Amino acid sequence: MGRILLIDDDRGFTDFLSGYIRDTYPLLQVEICNNPVAALQRIKAGGYDLLLIDLEMPSMDGLKLLMFATRTGMDKNRIVILSGRDANVLHDICPMGTCLAVLNKFEARQKAVLDMIFSSLPVISG
Predict the structure, then answer these.
(1) CB-count exposure of residue 85 (10 Å: 0-12, 13-18, 19+)
(2) Domains located in the chain, CATH noted
(3) CA 80 – CA 103 distance, rounded (Å)
């Protein structure tokens, strides 16, 4: 329980966000996948409580990963799309109900939304 898969081709961002999650939520387990095609196998294997998916990546975009994840049984309300695009543009691309949230990964105020999501996850018992 409490497993997060972070999929983003930007290694600097994945290192930053995974470090934040590990430091702030030590009972959550975060795995990084910098290759969206490689993420397909992990998603198919299942067992994740949350997917954090970058919208724009080479070889496969986040919307295709979102569709794949939901087709393999992942609840869309356990998927967050992240992007550097403006929030209004993001909501045009991913209307409400497409997934749990669509967030600009560089806007500080959106961190509060991620914190609420992380706090709602089941934790790994030790």
Answers:
(1) middle
(2) 3-120 (3.40.50.2300)
(3) 7
Residues, the chain, total? 126
- What single-letter DSSP state applies at residue 11? H
* Residue ranges of E strands in the chain: 3-7, 29-33, 50-54, 79-83, 101-104
pLDDT digit string (tens) for 47-87?
999 999 999 999 899 999 999 999 999 999 999 999 988 87
Q: Record the tokens describing residue 36, joined without a space.
A: 């969206």
Global pTM exceeds 0.90: yes
The one-letter amino acid at 50: L
Strand 79-83 vs strand 101-104: parallel, antiparallel, or unpaired? parallel
Taking the alpha carbons at both ends of the chain, their separation in whole angstroms is 11
Q: Which residues are CB-contacts of 120 (< 8 A; sequence separation ≥ 6)?
A: none
Please give the single-letter amino acid code of residue 115: D
